[in-house]
Amino acid sequence: MRRTVLSAMALASTAVLATTVPAFADDATPTPVPSTRPTEEAAPAPAEPSQATRTPSSAPAPARTPGQVAVVPEGAPDTGVAPAASRSGTGGMLIGTGAAALAASGAAVFVVRRRRVTGA
Amino acid sequence: MTPPSRRAFAAAALASLLVGCGGPAADRATNEGRSSRTPPPAAKANGERAAEALGRSVPARLLIPAIGVDTPVMGLGLASDGTMQVPPITPDDRAGWYRHSPTPGQVGPSVIIGHVTVGSYGDGVFRDLARLRRGDTVTARLENGAAAEFAVSSVRKVAKADFPADDVYGDVDRAELRLITCGGTRTGDGYLDNVIVFATMTSARGA
Predict the structure, then answer these.
(1) Element (H, E) at B60
(2) Which residues 6+ apart lie within 8 Å of B17 measured at CB?
(3) From CA B152, how far away is CA B128, in angstroms rounded?
(4) Nearest-CA distance from A30 to chain B in Å?
(5) Distance of alpha carbon A101 from alpha carbon B150, whole angstroms
(6) Cβ of B86 and A78 within 8 Å?
(7) Which of B40, B123, B153, B176 is 20 to 30 A away from residue B22, measured at CA?
(8) A31:B89 CB<8 A
(9) Which domain holds residue A23?
(10) Comparing C-alpha atoms, which of B40, B29, B65, B56 is closest to residue B150?
(11) Which chain B residues touch A75 with a CB distance below 8 Å?
(12) With contacts defined as CB-CB under 8 Å, which chain B residues touch A43?
């Protein structure tokens, strides 16, 4: 009876590990590096007096005559591309720890069986 | 099964569970918590002291000693969709000045952005921007040899969906600086938040 319970416990812990690693791996899925947006050449800016006359788009900008920021960009700057390399490295580490945990469980089962066989 | 073997088995099972559930998640939670802060209250007199504005000259270099930043600055315009261009994803990541904003030292909000991470290359130039504190120094060196020194007045983390355009791009009556990067929770598409540093010029050195 106890043997059955302990075997079930070993299976349960293995199952937990098997589900834990994919949970992390899901988070660590590398994302494709989006192509950078720049369409204009990134070079030191010349003076741009003419742009002061361009009107900010869409947003109901309250009659802000050419402001100190001549053209207000849309939305928020997208200044973060997920670190794919480090994240896949994390996934590798998780797989390694998962494998180590499975090996430990296997070793425990082996010791138990051996003791049973030897009658210890 | 004997009691010792039972104990050994139970200990192994417990250890395997602990190994499987530990790891980077806790570290991530710590980092997220660290970057969340609210703008501090009223400014000190020395942090808000107005300095005489400089003439227009594009920034060539940006230095933020508190977080070890010393980077060249490139010019950025608008992308075809109307958003601000961002610096290219390269191993030698650098900051970018939005060329439709005043140059650092001119009256108005000069806008400089940088990546927090650059994909497989790892950390971006503004990786630690959220760690800046009120009073930290930011220096912009300009192409004409002049330099403008700023003091951080506040650091804000805001949802990208609620980007405070008026606070960032709105007119001001002195030379100010906005440093922007991404932050907060990371998803498959990037980050959900922006970290924005507001700084005021405290001194200027002419060309």
Answers:
(1) strand B59-64
(2) A13, A16, A17, A101
(3) 14
(4) 8
(5) 52
(6) yes
(7) B123
(8) no
(9) 1-29+83-120
(10) B65
(11) 82-83, 160, 163
(12) 74-75
What is the spatial distance between Cα B170 and Cα B143, in angstroms, rounded to a whole number? 25
Show the tokens assigned to A58.
């869409």
Q: Where exactly are the structural domains of chain B?
A: 36-205
Contacts of residue B77 in chain A, CB cutoff 8 Å? 38, 40, 45
Domain for residue A11, yes or no?
Answer: yes
Report whether B71 contacts B90 (CB < 8 A). Answer: no
**Alpha carbon distance B54, B8 (integer Å):** 73
A44-96 pLDDT per residue, tens:
444 444 443 444 444 444 444 568 999 999 999 988 887 664 444 444 444 44
Q: Do B172 and A97 touch (CB under 8 A)?
A: no
Test B19 with A20 for CB contact under 8 angstroms. no
ipTM: 0.73
User: Does the predicted TM-score (pTM) go above 0.90?
Assistant: no
Looking at chain A, the number of H-run helices and the number of E-run strands are: 2, 0
Q: Between β-strands B108-113 and B175-187, what pairing exists: parallel, antiparallel or unpaired? A: parallel
B36-205 is classed CATH 1.25.40.10: no
CB contact under 8 A, A36 and B89: yes
